[in-house]
Design brief:
CATH superfamily of one domain: NAD(P)-binding Rossmann-like Domain
Shape: globular
Helix content: 40-55%
Strand content: 5-15%
CATH architecture of one domain: 3-Layer(aba) Sandwich
Radius of gyration: 23 Å
Strand order of the largest sheet: 9-8-7-6-10-11-12
Bound molecules: glutamic acid
Structural class: alpha/beta
Largest sheet: 7 strands, mixed
CATH topology of one domain: Rossmann fold
């Protein structure tokens, strides 16, 4: 069980303490607080699979934290380091994440206790299809009630197997594609979902840097350009966040921390090349021309402007929080900072952008994918050509009336009709911006809201509580 080594607080308890702080700020009545707080239901499965002639029994869970909105939503992770308590805590984070960013879902999470690197592709398919049967038969997989997505150790491939298994079980379900999100585009997925969480991290930081007061309060100045960033984890989230921030916002990625060590270069690391090296060699070690240190955890304490933990929970604990030198911690992973560490960092004046906000990009775009599947049509398909024709007429008319030529690049941009990826990006950016603005607003106006994390939880809990107050309990 992951615990804060010094305080002994588990991940679940850590999340509970953060939630409680927000509930106190809202003066929520104890009954409603208890109704929101508890995990609704948990399915534990143990199923046999025959792997290379031997029967293995595999354990997994699917926790449903809330059903105030349906379906309940959240990823499924494959990892040898997980337990029921952590799955419940992660499901709770999904509830608050969805509520904060106005994604009308309850919160859920699932896990299989396996090490994916120990199995072949065919074995992974067997295990995933068998797990899917367990989930579907027991009411934990359905487009209307419970919709998984990728998480640590899973991706498009697993989602394609899941949707295919569900389709064969329920051929009469016209909405079968909506039973999972994060599917490959040619299997009903949406453009922009794979990189959505990393893109969301970028949009979160861009929005933060639009508010000069907040930037100054964090002890920083100016924009993202040239900021020195250390990132932990070059998985799907960390890779895309580091790539977009370095290529488009010109941040300097001065450290990439991975299993087995850290690469450090004060001039900024070439993210794409490091990623390709890591995929090929299964490690960042041996990347040419830059410093490598096998003490990866120690690198969290490097002197930098922004630290982005994008790996897993419990990375900044009471044991190392006192030595973190970053001005800002941007939680791209779920629960990377423990409750105790959160207190220490706040007292030291470190600004934290919390996980429920920062990594919500994945579920936001999952929501778009789910809508696309229910409407059975790609966004933009009906109007793109129509917009293009009309835009061409506008620009031609503008040139005719003014007698001036619109610069070619601008004209191309004005003339084109929007495509699915444009709409997905714009919807994600807008959602992230609104959420941050709501957070800074409540932080400025409610004395009991002491930081952005409490702000995020307070907004989420207030929205969920309306549900209980409006419709009561049934
Ligand atoms: N696993 C992602 C998360 O933790 C995405 C969940 C989803 O899209 O349902 O937010």
């Amino acid at each position: 069980m992951t615990i804060d080594e010094t305080s002994g607080v588990t991940f679940q308890h850590s999340v509970d303490l953060m939630v409680k702080r927000a509930m106190d700020a809202l003066d929520l009545d104890p009954g409603t607080a208890r109704a929101i707080h508890g995990c609704g239901s948990v399915l534990k499965v143990q199923f046999p699979v025959k792997i290379r002639g031997t029967v293995e029994v595999i354990t997994g869970w699917r926790a449903v934290h809330s059903t105030h909105r349906l379906p309940s939503k959240g990823g499924i992770r494959y990892t040898p380091h997980v337990n029921q308590s952590e799955v419940e805590a992660l499901a709770a984070l999904m509830t608050y994440k969805c509520a904060l960013v106005d994604v009308p879902f309850g919160g859920s999470k699932g896990a299989l206790l396996i090490d994916p690197s120990q199995y072949t592709r065919d074995e992974m398919q067997l295990i995933t299809r068998r797990f899917t049967l367990e989930l579907a038969r027991k009411g934990f997989l359905n487009p209307a009630t419970n919709v998984p997505a990728p998480d640590m150790g899973t991706g498009q491939r697993e989602m394609a197997w899941m949707v295919d298994t569900y389709k064969h079980l329920h051929p009469e379900d016209i909405n079968y594609l909506a039973c999972v999100t994060g599917k490959p585009v040619h299997q009903g997925g949406i453009r922009g979902r794979t990189e959505a969480t990393g893109r969301g991290v970028q949009f979160a930081l861009q929005e933060f840097f639009r508010h000069a007061d907040d930037v100054e309060r964090a002890g920083l100045s100016g924009g993202l350009d040239g900021k020195r960033v250390a990132i932990q984890g070059l998985g799907n989230v960390g890779y895309h966040a580091a790539k977009f921030l370095s290529e488009e916002d010109r941040v300097k990625v001065i450290a990439i921390i991975e299993r087995g060590g850290v690469l450090i270069d004060d001039n900024g690391l070439p993210v794409e090349e490091v990623y390709r090296h890591m995929v090929e060699h299964k490690s960042v070690a041996g990347f040419p021309g830059v410093k490598f240190d096998s003490n990866g955890a120690g690198a969290l304490e490097l002197d930098c402007d922004i630290l982005i933990p994008a790996a897993m929970e419990n990375q900044i604990t009471s044991a190392n929080a006192g030595r973190i030198k970053a001005k800002m911690v941007v939680e791209a992973a779920n629960g990377p900072v423990t409750f105790e560490a959160d207190e220490i960092l706040r007292h030291r004046g470190v600004t934290i952008l919390p996980d429920v906000f920062v990594n919500s990009g994945g579920v936001i775009v999952s929501y778009f994918e789910w809508i696309r599947n229910l409407s059975h049509i790609r966004f933009g398909r009906l109007q793109r050509r129509h917009d293009e024709v009309r835009n061409n007429q506008y620009t031609a008319l503008l040139e005719q009336l003014t007698g001036e030529q619109i610069p070619a690049e601008t004209k191309r941009w004005l003339n084109r009709g929007v495509d699915e990826i444009d709409l997905v990006r714009s919807g994600l950016d807008d959602t992230m911006r609104n959420a941050y603005q709501e957070m800074r607003e409540i932080l400025a106006t409610n004395d009991k809201v002491i930081d952005l994390r409490t702000a995020a939880f307070t907004i989420a809990i207030r929205k969920i509580s309306y549900n209980y107050l409006d419709v009561g309990v049934y």
